[in-house]
Design brief:
By secondary structure, the chain is mainly beta. It is built from five helices and 16 strands.
């Protein structure tokens, strides 16, 4: 069965699991006669999560579903209400049966983020069996709710953007750079930042402050011609996010500043020099999600040194390294989001 297109889900916008446990769940459905009835939708949600305790009448958590038909298929407006707050999501499907299944998934995930995302064949059949059941078998209260005029020309509310919110995060890991120090540099970094949570939208920027420490001592040739270390902090912006299969790809850019420490270890009396460091760069970051909070990341890109120091040994005097115009960077890390 083809999966309906879900637009602007915004799952997790309400503390629904707690509300469902305390006051039950109310569900109303208005749909054309060709669509599966309310019982089918209730069965669909119940098969996905044990947290869904449906009640008649008012409840702490309410879902109001309206389905209409267009020339391209069927559309649904799913309104979620909790204590006066409401949010509307819009879904679209080629057939009404597919759309009702997608609505069931949205409701189940709103109630319980750990809900089953796909139903076994026998459960899917049981959830949709009411589609071929005569309407006369529906309880009077349900029939009254569903006897509204056909919704073929019902104006469905425009798609509401998923509830956008800024989510703080921390991350850390190891990084390697080529070209910024006399030998290949290896270091560690940490980062704190915020990112805009906007469902699957591409315009979901992220901003971070990233301190780091790197040294090229681990890869220096023997005998080493000096010891080189760098401490820096970068400010990063990732304006876009492309989401697919539970992972995301972000293009990012940064600017950074810090200090480079160079020690002439080959001299009879080692001499230490400090020099300012500034750089800019861009990278692509791939993120894999583990649940709603944990993630791992891999990124690679280019570093453009702005200060470009030249490393010189005094005794005997010789140029060890002149920083090039462009270097490379690679990092592996992970982190946690707080929401």
């Amino acid at each position: 069965m083809a999966i309906a297109v879900l637009v602007g889900l915004g799952l997790g916008a309400f503390p629904a699991r707690l509300e469902a446990a305390e006051g039950g769940v109310s569900l109303s459905l208005s749909a054309p006669a060709a669509c599966p009835p309310r019982e089918s939708l209730v069965s669909n949600v119940s098969a996905r999560t044990p947290e869904a305790a449906f009640v008649e009448g008012a409840a702490a958590l309410e879902f109001r579903v309206r389905i209409g038909q267009t020339t391209r298929g069927f559309v649904a407006a799913v309104e979620t209400r909790i204590h006066g707050d409401s949010e509307t999501r819009r879904l679209q499907g080629a057939t009404c049966a597919e759309l009702v299944d997608a609505v069931g998934l949205v409701i189940a995930l709103t109630i319980d983020p750990d809900a089953v995302r796909s139903l076994p064949a026998e459960e899917a059949t049981r959830a949709s069996i009411a589609e071929v059941t005569p309407r006369a078998s529906s309880p009077p209260s349900v029939a009254k709710e569903r006897d509204a005029p056909p919704a073929r020309d019902v104006a469905v509310p425009p798609a509401a953007a998923s509830r956008a919110r800024w989510v703080p995060f921390v991350r850390g890991g190891i990084q390697a750079e080529l070209g910024t120090l006399p030998y290949a540099a290896l270091g560690v970094f940490g980062a704190v930042g915020v990112e805009l949570e906007r469902g699957p939208a591409a315009l979901a920027p992220s901003f971070a402050f990233e301190p780091s420490f790197a040294t090229s001592d681990a890869f220096a040739s023997a005998p080493a011609r000096g010891s080189y270390m760098r401490g820096a902090a970068r400010v990063e912006a990732c304006p876009l996010r492309f989401v697919a299969f539970g992972a995301s790809l972000r293009p990012c850019a940064w600017m950074g500043a810090g200090l480079v420490r160079a020690e002439d270890t080959a001299a009879p009396v080692p001499e230490v020099r400090m020099a300012p460091w500034a750089d800019a760069g861009a990278r692509l970051r791939f993120r894999g999600e583990f649940g709603r909070r944990l993630f791992v990341e891999v990124d690679a890109g280019a570093v453009v040194p702005i200060t470009r120091p030249t490393f010189v040994l005094e005794q005997p005097r010789s140029i060890v390294y002149a920083t090039p115009a462009v270097g490379g960077t690679f990092a592996l890390g992970g982190g946690v989001r707080f929401w």
